[in-house]
Amino acid sequence: MSGLPGAGTSPGLGEASDLKFPLGAKFREPLTEARFQRLFGDAEQAPELLAEPRSSRLCRRWRRLASACSGPGAWRLLRARLPPLRWLPHYRWRAWLLGDAVAGVTVGIVHVPQGMAFALLTSVPPVFGLYTSFFPVLIYTLLGTGRHLSTGTFAVLSLMTGSAVERLVPEPLGGNLSGIEREQLDAQRVGSAAALAFGSGALMLGMFALQLGVLSTFLSEPVVKALTSGAALHVLVSQLPSLLGLPLPRQIGCFSLFKTLAAVLTALPRSSPAELTISALSLALLVPVKELNVRFRDKLPTPIPGEIVMVLLASVLCFTSSLDTRYNVQIVGLLPGGFPQPHLPDLAELPRILADSLPIALVTFAVSASLASIYADKYSYTIDSNQELLAHGISNLISSLFSCFPNSATLATTSLLVDAGGNTQLAGLFSCIVVLSVLLWLGPFFYYLPKVRNSGGMGVTGGGGGYILGHWGSQLASSAPKAVLACINISSMRQMFFQMQELPQLWRISRMDFAVWMVTWVAVVILSVDLGLAVGVVFSMMTVVCRTQRVQCLALGLAEGTELYRPLEESHKLLKVPGLCILRYPTPLYFGTRGQFRRILEWHLGLGEGRKETPKLDGPPDAVAEPVRVVVLDCSGITFADAAGAREVVQLARRCRDAGIHLLLAQCNASVLGTLTQAGLLDRVTPEQLFVSVQDAAAHALERLEPTGPKTCTVWV
């Protein structure tokens, strides 16, 4: 900076007080925006500081698209859309392979019972949960950017999908269905669930095409955590009839949680002792195992797969004790081997399911993107939110062709994968191998897995409690929830429930975020998951708008012995020059804040009636005791300005000129400066009134206030 024109050394010790000018300081002439651009800007940049022409931006975008059609450009695009091409060449085979294999197998073992359990929340037969635990995991391994993310069945999405399926394909009121009628009902529900996956996947692909990955920034952490915690309570209450062996229909819509609780309390005397015993024993095993895995995660070589142990024990108990015939405990029956034939979901259903597909797509992206970001920050790598949209969109779209229901990243299995030593997406391949083994060879071992009575009131039993499901070729008793699988559903919610432990800390950090958390949670619990999400997002955005409405415009003063300008309210030692007013407006200037901006400036500058109307605004009592001759507006906090805000600044410049006040603007970013210029600011002020910093503007103001005094208009370097 010493090479700037006008640069010099500080005055001697006897020339100025050492409180005003530190020894050895260097000085330069104030820099306006125009002068700064001449010295340091591009040669071709216009001195009028106009925004970049639209034609130039379009040409630059066209050149970028044209470069993508070249060989190197196509390779860069391919590497961007297939992440394994980036991380696989740098894979540390000796250091990471064992951890990925152990983590993948562990997660795959959990996927088997959890997939069947979450299928019950979706109101489809259990085998389709296994399909959803295979195809989406495989696709995300190839397209996802989250190295530690585990995808598959997710309780929140299963609950939302199940509510939509129950509404689209309701069970007949009588509930006494024959085997063929039950098969037709299940086929319709599977088709509706697959159509929901197809619709949500198509919506996410549309969001990817529009590059809407930035929407993940609007789904704040309190909203996502409150959503999952509230949905976990819905899952718990929806499984109470299964735990107690009560043949109750599923409640859907608003207030469904309270309707289910009322129905359970009314029917409590009719609980089934057999299913209640199975549920109690299952929870007595699963809950302690979950606690052991959490408390001894550093000492255990791999987490204990309590879910699969519970499934095997329950199957052995049912087989040896004949619970299906002696106590009418229904069992899963024969799981079909192989995969279903791929077919396109009924496109005629898409208009009906569009309203349900949108919240499912948003929840999928919100949970997956936030979970991926958490682990990316923890392990120091980055994710591409737009690529995540592509990965989950294709995952849901293609898996729907194989009768899968909506899927996303899952909290429980992601945490399990990390605890088991997973390092990259390669763990997903080992997880797929485990699920594939069950689908091809190990399905018969789950034949005697217990389940509860049919929710319609009367199940179709026979042949070990199952019936033939035509083209699926499986023996399944009914689509009602299974007792053991219901316990797995509840135990998998542990991590979501414990998120409420963060509320005291959130209260201490930010009361506004605490309010967002509580409003979202209450809306999810009282209304529904999708409506609760909408309420949470809207309320979160409203808090942002309210914060911009409650900012304080700060009057600045010079700290003695420094070049720093600080708010006058911080210290009485700050220098306040008579006739000079330096203001900082720390919020965006748009249609919602333009009125506040006008009132605050009127009060500080004594323009109009604003001073009399708002006597309690920020600033010391004597801030405007002497008429203001020069005002410096620090625009560093104005991140953007719209047309209404820009016109307000132009009007301020006109009113200041009419009142004899010299207006100086400092530290406007390029976007704000371009908007102000397009609104006609340069018709009211000259380029010499636009400065690169508050220090430069203040130095120029001092020269204007004391033209015959000592040369204090230099700026410290």
TrEMBL record:
- List the InterPro entries hit by this protein, alphabetically: SLC26A/SulP_dom, SLC26A/SulP_fam, STAS_dom, STAS_dom_sf
Principal subcellular localisation of the protein: membrane
Listed SUPFAM superfamilies: SpoIIaa-like
Instruction: Please report the stretch or stretches of sequence annotated as the STAS domain.
Output: 570-701
Q: Which cell locations does it reside in?
A: Membrane
One matching Pfam family: STAS
Q: What is the protein name given in its UniProt record?
A: Solute carrier family 26 member 10 isoform X1
Q: Taxonomic classification, please?
A: Eukaryota, Metazoa, Chordata, Craniata, Vertebrata
